[in-house]
Amino acid sequence: MKRIVRNIRELSRLISKIENFELFRNDTIKYLLNSDGFSHVIGFTGPPGAGKSTVCDKVGKILLEENKKVGILAVDPTSPFTGGAILGDRIRMSEAIKKGAFVRSIGSRGGIGGISKRTYLSVLSLENFGMDYVLVETVGVGQSDFEVRYIADTVCVILTPESGDYIQAMKAGLMEIGDIYVINKGDRPGAEDARKEIKAILDLIPSHSDWDVPVIKITAIREEGIDKLVDYIKKHGEFIKNRKEKIVKKRKERFIKEYIKDEILFDIDSFFEKEIRLEDVLSHLNGRDLDRLKKRFVNFLSKKTGSNPF
User: Fold this and answer.
1) How far apart are alpha carbons 309 and 233 in whole angstroms?
2) Which residues face 75 on adjacent strands?
3) Which of 92, 148, 262, 302 is the most buried (most CB within 10 A)?
4) Cα Rg of the chain, angstroms
């Protein structure tokens, strides 16, 4: 694999370009997508306030103490009004930063699955840099936000004793994406009951794998149970080792499809901004006009690219 990022400054600059949807050299994507998937990518997801940042920080600290290279991407929600994000997760990752982790906060930028639309390329950038582990913390997810499943090797779902109606969470899908379930703040009342309830729910869900999904209690702020969590993360990494190449291939194929979809949506907006007004289309709309409109859009794309890109 050719290294296109050789130092922290280049890595930071590349991730900024990726997350800001800026243009970069065409061969950049080629080299990123040709990465071999050697990094263990760990996703941390769960509802707001579950302590994802703290868990991520403590896990990163342990891995760094084992002389591993660790990169962390912390996704914060982007305002639909200003387009900005607070990007405050780094504040809660001081231990990992002190130990030498590369920590980058990024905005969700319109992503609706707990991560941004370009987070996968940022993960590949960290892998290209030579990270042994890449930790991805999602925004506080809702009932349908589980996009991290498609970019992470191991997904840790972080919950608390007060997380609420777990049956409702199960219906939403959050109880189907985890490889490890973690009850954080395990010193609070009801933590063991919550652990048992989660385990009972998981036993009801049909499994598509031989992996026995663990449900563990931790108290991240006091580093209690973090060693056990790291052990399970490593065990899951070994469990998928023989299938990793196939997993990475499917992941890249999915990214390419989603990338092209996003670009086409951008082109559609550009088309109606530059070529034709929607109000003119609506004034005399029929099936034949829609066909002509589609052909006009295809011509618009042809003029934009100049030639067949393949």
Assistant:
1) 41
2) 106
3) 148
4) 22
Architecture field, domain 36-114+130-243: 3-Layer(aba) Sandwich (3.40)
- Distance CA(39)–CA(54), nearest Å, equals 22
Q: What is the C-alpha separation between 149 and 36, in angstroms, rounded?
A: 19
Which residues on neighbouring strands pair with residue 74, listed in sequence order?
Answer: 105, 137
In the chain, where are the structural domains located?
36-114+130-243, 250-305
- Classify 146 as helix, strand or coil: coil
Residue 196 predicted with pLDDT over 80: yes
Query: 3-class SS at 78?
Result: coil
pLDDT number for residue 56: 95
Reported confidence tier of residue 79, pLDDT bands at 50, 70, 90: very low
pLDDT grade for 307, boundaries at 50, 70 and 90: very low
Task: Indicate the helix (H) or strand (E) that contains 167.
Answer: helix 166-172
Please state the pTM of the whole predicted model: 0.85
CA distance 48 to 142: 9
d(CA 75, CA 87): 8
Strand order in the sheet with 133-137: 102-107, 70-76, 133-137, 40-45, 154-159, 180-183, 215-217
